[in-house]
Amino acid sequence: MADKMALAKAINESLRRALESDDKVLIMGEDVGKLGGVFRVTDGLQKDFGESRVIDTPLAESGIVGTAIGLALRGYRPVVEIQFDGFVFPAYDQIVTQLAKMHARSLGKVKLPVVVRIPYGGGIGAVEHHSESPESLFAHVAGLKIVSPSNASDAYWMMQQAIQSDDPVIFFEPKRRYWDKAEVNPEAIPGPLHKAAVVRPGTDLTLAAYGPMVKLCQEVADAAAEEGKKLEVLDLRSVSPIDFDSIQASVEKTRRLVVVHEAPVFFGSGAEIAARITERCFYHLEAPVLRVGGYHAPYPPARLEEEYLPNLDRVLDAVDRSLAY
Questions:
Q1: What is the pLDDT of residues 275-311, one digit of tens each?
Q2: How far is residue 212's CA from residue 242's CA, in Å, rounded to a whole number?
Q3: Cis omega (within 30 of 0) on the bond before 58?
Q4: What does the alpha-carbon distance between residue 31 and residue 50 come to, in Å, rounded to a whole number?
Q5: Considering only 8-12, 81-85, 302-306, which range has the smallest mean pLDDT?
Q6: What are the residues whose beta carbons fall under 8 Å from the beta carbon of 65, sequence distance 6 or more?
Q7: What is the pTM for the complete model shown?
């Protein structure tokens, strides 16, 4: 039976199921236990599973990830929470120097099933270092899987798949979508973790996005439909690896592509998508691949973030520019 729940609740239920099904699964992070996390994503888990399974850690991100690496080497499956996106950088060295490379260094003999949960993105009026979108920094590093759900159902199943993966997974949670509700069926059979999904079919142009921007792209498609334009919305779901085959299939049908993400456009994931799709679909494209994202500037104070983040008008402008070719 499917239940309607918020994205944050879906992650909570997914973590609960993982803790129940495998006693090697541990949850670690700042305030994840008694408080249940600042967004209450881990609410009630320490009460039900104990302080040895849901562990409140010191405020030391490098130590949290380093400890998780050691636990994974001993056969555990740690799920680490980084409290906010901007707090991950003290752990960046551990993630990219150790976590990402152990598998390759050991010629596949060592597996590191660590999930690093990171609430990310803006739109909630937070203070400095609480609204970053650093996914491209991690996607550049071989050995890491990078995913981001856009809805509660995907959040539930993608977390299950991330925990079961023998490779380290960086799980970016779109904090502005934590309270968006959708149906979740805990008995459904999920699709592949890194497979993109068409969430709205169309014929005139493809909008590709992931995480917090998928909902915006659906709103853009609704607005464009009022003018007779049929836009296809593709939820990428994964930033590394990227499902280029699904993007290509969509673009070969629509012949136009606009990539949308909150992170800065400069050296963002949209740049890699634009380059690859231009190579793959050169003779199908009727317009250059366009990108809409954040500016190449530090994330601004909360009162200015709506000027910084992609919005309906900015994405519609890119759609109009593409269709004008």
A1: 999 999 999 999 999 999 999 999 999 999 999 999 9
A2: 17
A3: no
A4: 14
A5: 302-306
A6: 80, 91, 94, 95, 99, 114, 116
A7: 0.96
Do 293 and 122 touch, CB atoms closer than 8 A? no
- Give me the torsion for CA of 47, 48, 53, 58, rounded to 10°: -20
Residues 103, 129, 130, 194: which is the catalytic one? Answer: 130
8-state DSSP, 97: I
Dihedrals φ, ψ of 187, to 5°?
-105, 0
Residue 113 · residue 72 · CB < 8 Å = yes
d(CA 298, CA 36): 30
- Sequence length of the chain is 325
| Continuous segment of H or E residues that includes residue 280 | helix 269-280
Q: For 122-146, what is each residue's pLDDT tens digit?
A: 999 999 999 999 999 999 999 999 9
Token readout for 32 is 């994840």
Structure-token pair, residue 196: 């993109």
**Would residue 194 show up in a list of annotated catalytic residues for this protein?**
no
Token pair 């993608």 in the structure block, residue: 158
